[in-house]
Amino acid sequence: MAVTDGKGPWPALPALPDAATDAVLASGLLPELAHAFGGPFHFLLPEAFDANLRAMHDVLAAAGVDGFVYFAKKANKAAVFVERAAAGGAGVDVASTGELREALGHGVRGEHLVVTGPAKDPGLLRLAVQQGALIAVDALDELDALVTVALTGRVRPARVLLRCLPPAQPHSRFGMTGAELATAVERCVQAGDAVRMEGFSFHLSGYALQPRADLAGHLVELCLKARVQGLEASRISIGGGLPISYTDADSWHTFLTRHHSRYYHAGKAFGTGDFYPYHSPNAGPDALAALLATRPEGHGRPLAELLKDAGVVLLLEPGRALLDRAGATVFRVQGVKDRDGYQLLTVDGTSLSLSEQWFDSEYLPDPYLLSQDATTGPAADAASAAPAGVHPASVGAATCLESDMLTWRKVGFPRRPRTGDLLVYPNTAGYQMDSNESPFHDLPLPPKVVVDRTDRPRPRWRLDRHLT
Ligand SMILES: *Cc1c(COP(=O)(O)O)cnc(C)c1O
Fold first, then answer.
1. For residues 62, 163, 170 and 229, what is the CA-based torsion angle, rounded to 10 degrees?
2. Hey, which end of the chain has fewer CB within 10 Å, N or C?
3. Quick check: CB of 244 below 6 Å from ligand 1?
């Protein structure tokens, strides 16, 4: 794209090419839906979820590792992803009674649930035991409460994983220290038939592979020790945190090098360390393959071999990585203001539909600009743009908060955005679209539209939940 600020190309973060998203953009469906809903909406591409899940199963099979995938439900509230998890042979990771109910109601068997989260309330523990769900126990008092529930219920034993406080993240509020784990193992032995101790778990912040491999290696050792005490200890859960790539390596590295507050509305200053790593050399299923091939500290062999030799099943709880390319978010431009060298757009929704904005950070992938009357895709739209070059614009919300910006960054659009245009934020299914949504200002929550059969000239759509 053209040089516009005398300092090099305008920083751009184009989404990785995706045939299904392109097909939807080119189909003419989005302006029609924008008209129908009269406000922002999300579209979901469940076929991408299916493909991501299959790819993870393939990686496990290729490595000869016995494993099981749980979809971390908090990453998206749609019903369709839970249905696809159930249909694709995956379980679901839930952390509240509401999530557990949703998972069961959309076809996931109780035995295929893992219940995570700290200090789970007794009602959730009771349901989890009744349904035969695996429960990741976060603290000693929670283990005691669970034993009580299992003893009073007398239906079936509580299936337990013991969650480990990562030694590399000693300030985490989750998990148990080494000493607490030893006590917990002891209490599981004492609990007898009330508890089935199936192994250990962790969930690490960050996306690095080596610390995950190291801790997984450590948990395998803990399993072997616990077996000596007569416990089953046959599986470990490595949580989530498989990174995904939103953009290509070049764009990401150029962006990081050229990062400067002049590219943001109001000179907003983000640190590059505040951003999600929008490109990873190993992403999604490849990250899982790389993890299995990584040698945990203190071991001469890769994690995959360690697991096989110990007869330990690998559980994983990916959220974001299963939702890669599985949805996007559409806003309509309601107004355009000219500022010094850029435009300020106001769209018909809020940054509560783009959750990254609420973590001292910004959702960086470039939104697509679509004409309201577009019947062709973004490429054709860009080609018809009058002056060649870059038209920088930041994106604000239809609210009265100064800080409610969907994009502080001045995105370099291929033409001047106009009132009535649509902005399509790509790849928002993982956390962005709904984890922070709220009917602030009495604005309705954006509906979710499930789109499939994107290989046909006219993709098929329906609402994720039927109106009641
Ligand atoms: C959030 C969470 C996950 C999912 O993490 P991703 O980064 O989306 O893969 C998995 N397990 C636990 C315990 C979590 O809290």
1. -100
2. C
3. no
Give 34-65 as a DSSP string: HHHHSS-EEEE-HHHHHHHHHHHHHHHHHTT-
Q: What tokens were used for 327?
A: 């949805």
Q: Would you say the CB of residue 320 lies under 6 angstroms from ligand 1?
A: yes
Q: What is the pLDDT of residue 380?
A: 43
DSSP, res 177: -
Domain ranges of the chain: 19-45+325-463, 47-245+280-316
User: Separation of 203 CA from ligand 1 center, angstroms?
Assistant: 7
The tokens 């029609």 sit on which residue?
32
229 C-alpha to ligand 1 centroid (Å) = 30
DSSP assignment string, 384-412: T-SSSS-EEEEEE-SSS-TT-EEEEEEEE
Query: CA-CA distance, 255 to 142, in Å (whole number)?
Result: 45
Which ligand 1 atom is the nearest neighbour of the CA of 207? 7
- What is the secondary structure of 443-457 as a DSSP string? PPPPPEEEEE-TTSS
Residues of the chain with pLDDT under 50: 1-3, 376-377, 379-387
| Cα 41 to middle of ligand 1, angstroms | 25
362 Cβ contact partners less than 8 Å away, ≥ 6 residues apart: 270, 274, 275, 356, 407, 408, 409
Q: Is 241 in the pocket of ligand 1 (CB under 6 A)?
A: yes
How many other C-beta atoms can be found within 10 angstroms of the C-beta atom of residue 102?
18
Task: Kindly indicate whether the domain formed by 19-45+325-463 is annotated with CATH number 2.40.37.10.
Answer: yes
Tell me the CA–centroid distance for residue 72 and ligand 1, in Å: 6
pTM tops 0.85, yes or no: yes
Nearest CA to ligand 1 atom 2: 240
* Residue indicated by tokens 């040698």: 295
The one-letter code for the residue type at 367 is P
Angle, CA of 351, 278 and 59, to the nearest 5°: 120
Q: What are the pLDDT digits (tens) for 308-321?
A: 999 999 999 999 99
Amino acid (1-letter code) at residue 454: T
Give the model's pLDDT for residue 5. Answer: 67
pLDDT for res 244: 98
